[in-house]
Specification:
- The complex is a heterodimer of chains A (about 250) and B (about 200).
- Chain A has about 250 residues and is an alpha/beta fold.
- Chain A has 5 helices and 12 strands.
- Chain A has a 6-stranded antiparallel beta sheet with strand order 4-3-6-1-2-5. Chain A has a 6-stranded parallel beta sheet with strand order 10-9-8-7-11-12, with helices on both faces.
- In chain A, a hairpin with a 5-residue loop joins strand 3 and strand 4.
- Chain A starts with 12 loop residues before the first strand and ends in a 12-residue tail after the last strand.
- Chain B is globular, with a radius of gyration of 18 Å.
- In chain B, strands 1, 4, 5, 8, 9 and 10 form a 6-stranded mixed beta sheet that branches. A 5-stranded mixed beta sheet of chain B has the order 3-2-11-6-7.
- Chain B has about 200 residues and is mainly beta.
- The interface between A and B is large, with 57 and 43 residues.
Chain lengths: ~250, ~200
């Protein structure tokens, strides 16, 4: 296990919101301009803190959606019973200040030197850190062969739809839609399982490097299936989102 | 001084008396989120052992059957995850680490817990003895599920929950406090939720 260099203390800073882009009916991407950003690695996350007028604060973690060479952005899904995500997706405006600190996390990260081939598996908003990895791959000119399988409820829920639909050299993107499919859908249907992964994942002989991010049940199923296919567990990195009971953000990461 | 987030207000009131049980920056969850860096290992119980080691030397080792014969306790504890969820009043069944260390002759100020899957975490001995830490194999009247660390995990509720290593297989006695897995990736070497020691330097 690689050790990262010891870093300085992570300080809270007020970052102006540069822009907000709507991705789907419940998801926005927020570009931030933190005054002291030490740089991040693809796959890391950051902490956000909101402060109410009465002094009440709420903190959450969000995955960084942009490549290290790009402005810091996060992509946030509104959870109906959440406290922070409805604010970030509904109230926040460009020019507002958003308090953050980061970057955080050093295991679920990818650098071109880590190689591949890359097997990326995303469930819902679990696409966010994988998008950072995809953009880093593109920006650095890494030609690492890459496959992405992205599971969503419906086509309308697919985040970064246009971007993922562009033809990127050496990236194969597949979708599975679990709830309903548009007319004439030719992609996969239903929840991810061993049979689907046996069909779409790189064979273990290719020595792939896998990153899986999504809800707990998605990650458990996908990681177990890859291990069953012969992927060494240490080549399967996971990140779990488990928004439950008023918990949002990456908490249940 | 934090800027006020225009239009942000508290949506949930924690039930009476529970605010004081929440460390700074934490919020309550009713669920039990799962956080792991890799696939969930499934070690068959007949292959499972728990060992107290010191470098290459094994000072004491128990099979699953032997472990089950040790005196177990029911533990009720509030748990706090560094990703900011806290869960109050969780109930566990396990053997205290003090009981285990008491059966191995040792003289070391620190341990490195080691686990199936390669996970490690460092702990001072004084934090895991004196009834402050357990090797837990039961949760809520049932066996501990694999995704929550079963067959057995460390339970050190007074520290952030990454210190409560899942799938724990033993403790390696150490003379020095060296960083484990998450501690090597920028998380705090000790991890006291009441002092909000999330990251190195906090």
């Amino acid at each position: 296990m690689a050790r990262t260099a010891v870093r300085g203390r992570l300080i809270w800073q007020a970052a102006p919101v540069a822009s907000i882009t709507r991705e789907t009916t419940s998801v926005v991407t927020i570009e931030l301009d933190p005054p002291h950003w030490p740089g991040h690695r693809a796959g890391q996350h950051l902490d956000v803190r909101l402060t109410a007028e009465d002094g009440y604060t709420a903190e959450r973690e969000y995955s960084i959606a942009s490549a290290p060479s790009e402005p810091v952005t996060i992509t946030v899904e509104r959870l109906e019973d959440g406290e922070v995500s409805p604010y970030l997706t509904g109230e926040l405006r460009p020019g507002d200040l958003l308090e953050l600190r980061g970057p955080v996390g050093g295991y679920f990260v990818w650098e071109p030197g880590d190689g591949g081939p890359l097997m990326l598996l995303a469930g819902g908003s679990g696409i966010v850190p994988l998008r950072s990895i995809l953009r880093h791959r593109l920006r650095t000119g890494s030609g690492v062969p890459t496959r992405l399988l992205y599971s969503s409820r419906r086509w309308e829920d697919v985040i970064y739809r246009d971007e993922l639909g562009q033809d990127h050299d050496g990236v194969q993107v597949g979708y599975t839609l679990t709830r309903n499919q548009p007319a004439g859908w030719t992609g996969h249907t239903g929840r991810i399982d061993s049979a689907l992964l046996a069909e779409v994942a790189w064979p273990a002989e290719a020595n792939p490097l896998a990153y899986i991010c999504g809800p707990t049940s998605f990650v458990e199923t996908a990681a177990a299936a890859l291990v069953e296919l012969g992927y060494p567990p240490e080549r399967v990195k996971t990140e779990r989102f488990g928004g439950t009971g008023g918990t949002d953000g990456r908490s249940g990461r | 001084m934090s800027p006020v987030s225009r239009g942000f207000r508290r949506l949930y009131r924690d039930p009476a008396g529970q605010d004081s049980r929440l460390p700074p920056g934490q919020h309550l969850t009713e669920g039990f989120p799962v956080l792991s860096a890799g696939p969930t290992p499934h070690t068959p119980l007949e292959e499972w052992t728990f060992s107290i080691t010191q470098g290459s030397q094994t000072r004491k080792s128990w099979t699953w059957q032997e472990f089950q014969a040790l005196p177990a306790e029911t533990i009720t504890a509030d748990i706090h995850c560094v990703t900011r969820w806290s869960k109050l009043g969780t109930q566990w069944r396990g053997v205290s680490v003090g009981t285990l260390l008491g059966k191995a002759e040792y003289d070391a100020p620190y341990v490195m817990a080691f686990c199936d899957g390669g996970y490690t975490t460092n702990l001072p001995i004084e934090d895991i003895t004196g009834g402050r830490a357990w090797v837990a194999f039961g949760y809520d009247d049932g066996p501990l599920e694999a995704e929550h660390g079963g067959p057995a995990r460390l339970l050190v509720p007074h520290l952030y929950f990454w210190k409560s290593a899942k799938w724990v297989r033993g403790l390696d006695l150490r003379d020095t406090d060296e960083p484990g897995f998450w501690e090597s990736y920028g998380y705090h070497i000790y991890g006291d939720p009441w002092r909000e020691q999330r990251y190195a330097g906090d």
